[in-house]
Amino acid sequence: MPEAPINVPVQPGAQPTPRGRRVLVVDDSRMQRRILASQLARAGYEVLEAETGEQALLLCAAEPVDLVLSDWVMPGMSGLDFCRAYRALPRDDYGYFVLLTSKIEKGEVARGLASGANDFLTKPVNGDELRARLAAGERILHMQSELKAKNRLLSSTLAELQRVYDSVDRDLCEARKLQQSLLKDRYRCFGGAEVSLMLRPSGHVGGDLVGYFPINSRRVGLFGIDVSGHGITSALMTARLAGFLSGSSPEQNIALVLTDLGIYDARPPHELAAYLNVLVLEEMQTDNYFTLVYADVDLITGKVDLVQAGHPHPAVQRADGSIEYLGQGGLPVGLIEGAEYELFSTTLLPGDRLFLMSDGVTEAADARGALLGEIGLREVMARNAKLRGQVFLESVMWDVSEFADGDLTDDISAVLFEFNGAKENDG
């Protein structure tokens, strides 16, 4: 009958290894097992013994073994077969496997390594060589243990980051809804004129803002803003700027001034840009700046006073389909102290329309990196000349996306003002 596995205790006075390694000795020779077990016990290892590969496999399945010393030639299951079965066992930690053989040839070494063995020892085993080989195994096991600990830490960190990401993602989804709510009315009719808005952030939230507000009974203010950068910081700044140019609270709108007659008038566009520049630099205390285009439109005469502060050139599409670009560029707002801004004007006739767009439109790039630019936008606007309002904006957005093969990396926003004729003067 095969002998029962033997647990050889650490000899009295022996110093255990720092990691308390457990070694399994597998050999059909009781004498060989005793010699090896004695050497290992003196070195501070906890030693288990097995007479056969089958017995050793049952023992390994029942309790973890760090290192294995197994004879190659044994009755029944050979050391090679045991090594393969040992590697197939489910276990959390790596085990270091050493095959014992009376002679080692190149072919045998290749077979052993292919079966999962880590090292070989020639019988009879030299004590110094045994300790050296096990020390090498210790280093492998130590590195594996450290790697496992780091992987656990990495997995834990990734799980925590995923929880944080999910939380931020939920917040950003809500922030997107709030930012889109800044455009409460994407279309409004002012008698003989119509205003349509479009806002498409490239991510959850963006740094673009468009809007309009009544100045008085015959004038309306239109604006487009593009805050530097992307993401949460830019979105927070657009929310702040939306409050400065509120259409629902004229008393909070810095573009409006209450006259002695108790009615609102508006700052000239270039003065508004200069005022915002001071406000951003002195009060908002941020590294962000923004580009701006602002238009003061007379709904009766069709006259439009504008300022361009680093924003793309406003485009006027005439009733005959021809397109003009206005403005000289100008400095962004909040970038340079004491910046001055230029006022310029145009007049819209019935059938004309004013298009204010962000650089996400003109700087959309195709697969080769070529930008749409003003020439490309001119073609897009001409192609959609017969469309109106939101349909025009959606069609322009579609064409720009097609040009960029769907890869729009910047926020896109636009204001479309369509002048159909003089508004009836009710005041």
Please render the helix and strand layout as text.
Layout: E1 6-8, E2 22-26, H1 30-42, E3 46-50, H2 53-62, E4 67-71, H3 79-88, E5 96-101, H4 106-115, E6 119-122, H5 127-180, E7 187-189, E8 193-200, E9 208-214, E10 219-227, H6 232-244, E11 256-258, E12 264-266, H7 269-284, E13 290-298, E14 303-309, E15 315-317, E16 323-325, E17 343-347, E18 353-357, H8 359-362, H9 373-383, H10 389-403, E19 412-419
Parallel strand pairs: 2-3, 2-4, 4-5, 5-6
Antiparallel strand pairs: 1-3, 7-8, 8-19, 9-10, 10-13, 11-12, 13-14, 14-17, 15-16, 15-18, 18-19
Outline:
The protein is α+β, with helices and mostly antiparallel strands and 427 residues long.
The number of helical runs is 10
Q: What portion of residues is helical?
A: 25-40%
Residue windows where pLDDT falls under 50 for at least 5 positions: 1-18
State the end-to-end CA separation. 115 Å
Rounded to an integer in angstroms, the radius of gyration calculated over CA atoms is 40 Å
Percent range for β-strand residues: 15-25%
Q: Can you tell me the CATH topology of the largest domain?
A: Phosphatase 2c, domain 1
Q: What's the count of strands? A: 19
Question: Can you summarize the main beta sheet?
Answer: 6 strands, mixed
Label the overall shape: rod-shaped
CATH class of the largest domain: Alpha Beta
Structural class: alpha+beta
Strand order across the largest sheet: 1-3-2-4-5-6
